[in-house]
């Protein structure tokens, strides 16, 4: 996370459906109609970096009404597909076999943004469970490090190999090299997988060399 | 930042080894360091200092006390890296710690099997120390090294399985890792930190806490 | 749509990031000068728009009646959208540049002079070349200052032996150490003091065995 975070910037560029609550002339370029107005109740997809703010700030619905009336935001955010009841139910039903990458490759990041916007505790709980459940599987894959990796490696550069093959076999870890599960990871999960895999690999290499 | 990214978040196993090598261990020296220092005698002849010719070694150490002097066949304690260096030159044998015997390891394995939700009380550096001694001082054990190795490997696998089970209970606020050793924690650190941080992020997002991105005390490691 | 060009740039940055995760040595793709110039052009255009909108807003405030077709809400919304587009472009530009600068930093620390030479001629923008040069000078200053006794860009792996066996990977001629002269001929092996040859290991002349 952070201002310079490439992944966060990309997550911010994901488009979500919005409904305009005001007539705004001249904004037609947002829906590829430069010069044309956008009319009230028009629905269009806007990137989060734009929609997020437009959903908070707004003009007064009617300048003549009382001053303390809540200003009506320029757009109303509509629930995107990835948070629709259908998808949420699929998430609840079977987190393990879910193709999160297909739903959105920045799912966790977007969910966090969405939860922040709406203080959506229910969604938070769903995502919490999703992450916990999937992280167990990710961890299993990350921990599976084939031993022969250390025989052919050139960058590790140690000739002191002992002959104890018992170090390699690790019955507690699932041993699958090319799994379809890894293709279903979203960007955050991928990052975790890579980092933990490196860590397990380093430790195993060290154990092997000693 | 000059420190490569992979070293910013966790230690490399080599760094862990380095830390562990600074711990004391008992050795059985084959040399005596208190000995006549001849050239000193010559230099000091006319000053009459030659009666103090038995001198102690004083080596610089990172802690504020000098290296213990060694007398052949009398056990003494030195830091591990010195022990390994002396061992390499056949100047000492290393006395394996009490827990690193077949009997004691079998007890630990029993404990691990009996208590599903607890780790046996091994020293914080058990895995690293065992690996180092197996590699560099295999002839100093009373028990056959391959059997010790097998037991260490068994212990590691049982404990790894328990860790995997325990990860189901990760949450956004705390984690207790009693009796888990430095290398075992280090190996898990990237995974646990990232997951817990994301859970914390979700939690603060749902509860309208600002500064959702300000990472502070993600973890509560509990050594004992 | 505004921001599309910036998106392209960020996707490029993401590719760079992924590439460098896989490869050990940092590889910096070409600086996207055209794309960046066009994004900056877009920002300039957006700036003009905001100035125009601000003018209109002032006009509106100075007028009593509200009959010239100008609507405060509309102006406000247009103004916000324009500002957000500018900010988005800015964030993308800065993130792209930050990623490249970070990579230049680690390159400057990595001691591999040859790869720096390669880069300087090709893929860096003029400013980046300047940056790399000056950052390199800063590092040199730091190394020769107070901490001259420590090799700050030395190996980060804690040493376990003072003397090590090394194999020569590339001919490197003669090197002089405290323990005599070694003639480094490919495939020969030596037993040397680790601190004497650390640099040669980093540069790929020697391999620890």
UniProtKB/TrEMBL annotation, chain A:
Q: Which PANTHER family has this protein been placed in? A: DNA REPLICATION COMPLEX GINS PROTEIN PSF3 (PTHR22768)
Protein task: The GINS complex plays an essential role in the initiation of DNA replication.
Q: Where in the cell is it found?
A: Nucleus
Q: Which organism is it from?
A: Naumovozyma dairenensis (strain ATCC 10597 / BCRC 20456 / CBS 421 / NBRC 0211 / NRRL Y-12639)
Q: Which UniProt keywords apply?
A: DNA replication, Nucleus
Q: Where would I find the DNA replication complex GINS protein PSF3 N-terminal domain in this sequence? A: 4-56
User: Which taxonomic lineage does the organism of this UniProt entry have?
Assistant: Eukaryota, Fungi, Dikarya, Ascomycota, Saccharomycotina
Occurrences of domain GINS subunit (ranges): 83-208
Q: Which family does the UniProt entry place this protein in? A: Belongs to the GINS3/PSF3 family.
Under the heading Gene3D superfamilies, the entry gives: 1.20.58.2050
What quaternary arrangement does the UniProt entry report? Component of the GINS complex which is a heterotetramer of SLD5, PSF1, PSF2 and PSF3.
Q: Which gene encodes it?
A: NDAI0G01380
Provide the protein name. Answer: DNA replication complex GINS protein PSF3
Q: Name one GO cellular component term.
A: GINS complex
GO process terms (BP)? double-strand break repair via break-induced replication; mitotic DNA replication initiation
From TrEMBL, chain B:
User: What assembly does the database describe for this protein?
Assistant: Component of the GINS complex.
Has the keyword Nucleus been applied to this entry? yes
Top-rank taxon of the source lineage equals: Eukaryota
In this chain the DNA replication complex GINS protein PSF2 N-terminal domain maps to 68-95
Task: List the Pfam families.
Answer: PSF2_N, Sld5
Query: Could you tell me where this protein is found in the cell?
Result: Nucleus
Could you give one GO CC term from the UniProt record?
Answer: chromatin
User: What's the family?
Assistant: Belongs to the GINS2/PSF2 family.
Question: Which residue ranges have biased composition labelled Basic and acidic residues?
Answer: 38-54
Q: Which GO terms describe its biological process?
A: double-strand break repair via break-induced replication; nuclear DNA replication
Locate the GINS subunit domain: which residues?
99-202
Source organism per UniProt = Naumovozyma dairenensis (strain ATCC 10597 / BCRC 20456 / CBS 421 / NBRC 0211 / NRRL Y-12639)
Q: Please give the name of this protein.
A: DNA replication complex GINS protein PSF2
According to the record, the residues making up region (Disordered) are 34-55
Which keywords are on file for this protein? DNA replication, Nucleus
Name of the coding gene: NDAI0G05650
From TrEMBL, chain C:
Q: Which GO terms describe its cellular component?
A: CMG complex; GINS complex; nuclear replication fork
Question: Pfam families, per this entry?
Answer: PSF1_C (PF24997), Sld5 (PF05916)
Protein location: Nucleus
| Residue ranges of every copy of the DNA replication complex GINS protein PSF1 C-terminal domain listed in the record | 161-208
Which keywords are on file for this protein?
Coiled coil, DNA replication, Nucleus
Q: Which domain of life is it from?
A: Eukaryota
Domain (GINS subunit) spans 57-144
- Coiled-coil annotated residue ranges, if any: 36-73
Q: Name one GO biological process term.
A: double-strand break repair via break-induced replication
Task of the protein? Required for correct functioning of the GINS complex, a complex that plays an essential role in the initiation of DNA replication, and progression of DNA replication forks. GINS complex seems to bind preferentially to single-stranded DNA.
This protein's assembly is summarised as: Component of the GINS complex.
What family name appears in the similarity comment?
A: Belongs to the GINS1/PSF1 family.
Give the protein's recorded name.
DNA replication complex GINS protein PSF1
Source species, please? Naumovozyma dairenensis (strain ATCC 10597 / BCRC 20456 / CBS 421 / NBRC 0211 / NRRL Y-12639)
């Amino acid at each position: 996370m952070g201002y310079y975070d490439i992944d966060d910037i990309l997550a911010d560029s994901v488009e979500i459906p919005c409904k305009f609550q005001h007539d705004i002339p001249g904004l037609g370029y947002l829906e590829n109609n430069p010069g044309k107005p956008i009319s009230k109740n028009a629905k269009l997809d806007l990137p989060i970096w734009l929609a997020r703010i437009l959903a908070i700030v707004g003009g007064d619905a009617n300048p003549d009404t009382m001053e303390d009336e809540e200003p009506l935001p320029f757009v109303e955010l509509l629930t995107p597909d990835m948070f629709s009841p259908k998808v949420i139910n699929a998430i609840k039903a079977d987190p393990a076999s879910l193709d999160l990458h297909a739903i959105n490759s920045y799912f966790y990041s977007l969910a966090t943004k969405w939860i922040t916007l709406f203080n959506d505790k229910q969604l938070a709980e769903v995502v919490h469970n999703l992450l916990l459940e999937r992280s167990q599987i990710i961890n299993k894959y990350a921990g599976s490090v084939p031993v022969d990796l250390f025989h052919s490696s050139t960058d590790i550069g140690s000739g002191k190999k002992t002959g104890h093959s018992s170090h390699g076999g690790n019955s507690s870890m699932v041993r699958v090299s090319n799994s379809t599960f890894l293709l279903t990871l979203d960007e955050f999960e991928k990052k975790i997988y890579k980092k933990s895999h490196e860590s397990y690999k380093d430790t195993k290499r060290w154990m092997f060399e000693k | 930042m000059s420190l490569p990214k992979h070293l910013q978040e966790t230690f490399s196993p080599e760094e862990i080894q380095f830390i562990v090598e600074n711990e004391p261990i008992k050795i059985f020296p084959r040399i005596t360091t208190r000995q006549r220092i001849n050239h000193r005698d010559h230099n000091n002849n006319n000053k009459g200092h030659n009666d103090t010719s038995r001198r102690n070694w004083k080596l610089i150490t990172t802690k504020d006390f000098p290296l213990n002097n060694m007398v052949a066949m009398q056990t003494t304690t030195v830091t591990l890296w010195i022990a390994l260096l002396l061992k390499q030159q056949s100047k000492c044998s290393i006395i394996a710690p009490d827990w690193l015997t077949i009997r004691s390891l079998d007890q630990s394995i029993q404990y691990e099997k009996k208590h599903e939700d607890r780790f046996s009380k091994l020293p914080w550096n058990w895995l690293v120390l065992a690996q180092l001694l197996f590699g560099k001082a295999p002839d100093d054990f009373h028990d056959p090294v391959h059997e010790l190795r097998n037991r260490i490997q068994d212990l590691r696998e049982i404990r790894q399985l328990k860790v995997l089970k325990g990860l189901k209970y990760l949450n956004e606020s705390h984690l207790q890792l009693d009796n888990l050793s430095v290398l075992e924690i280090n190996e898990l650190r990237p995974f646990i930190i990232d997951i817990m941080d994301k859970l914390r992020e979700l939690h603060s997002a749902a509860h309208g806490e600002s500064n959702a991105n300000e990472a502070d005390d993600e973890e509560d490691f509990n050594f004992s | 749509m505004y921001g599309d060009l910036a998106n392209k740039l960020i996707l490029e940055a993401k590719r760079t990031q992924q590439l460098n995760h896989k490869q050990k040595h940092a590889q910096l793709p070409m600086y996207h000068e055209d794309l960046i110039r066009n994004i900056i052009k877009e920002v300039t255009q957006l700036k003009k728009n905001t100035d125009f909108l601000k003018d209109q807003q002032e006009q509106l405030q100075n007028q009593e009646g509200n009959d010239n077709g100008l609507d405060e809400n509309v102006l406000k919304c247009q103004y916000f959208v324009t500002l957000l587009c500018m900010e988005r472009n800015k964030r993308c530009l800065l993130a792209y540049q930050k990623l490249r600068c970070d990579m230049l930093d680690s390159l400057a620390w990595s001691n591999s002079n040859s790869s720096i030479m390669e880069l300087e001629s090709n893929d860096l923008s003029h400013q980046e070349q300047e940056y790399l040069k000056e950052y390199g000078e800063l590092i040199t200053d730091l190394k020769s200052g107070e901490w001259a006794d420590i090799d700050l860009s030395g190996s980060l792996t804690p040493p376990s032996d003072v003397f090590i066996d090394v194999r020569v990977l590339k001919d490197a001629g003669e090197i002089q150490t405290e323990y005599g002269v070694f003639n480094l001929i490919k495939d020969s092996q030596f037993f040397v003091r680790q601190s004497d040859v650390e640099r040669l290991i980093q540069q790929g002349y020697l391999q620890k065995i």
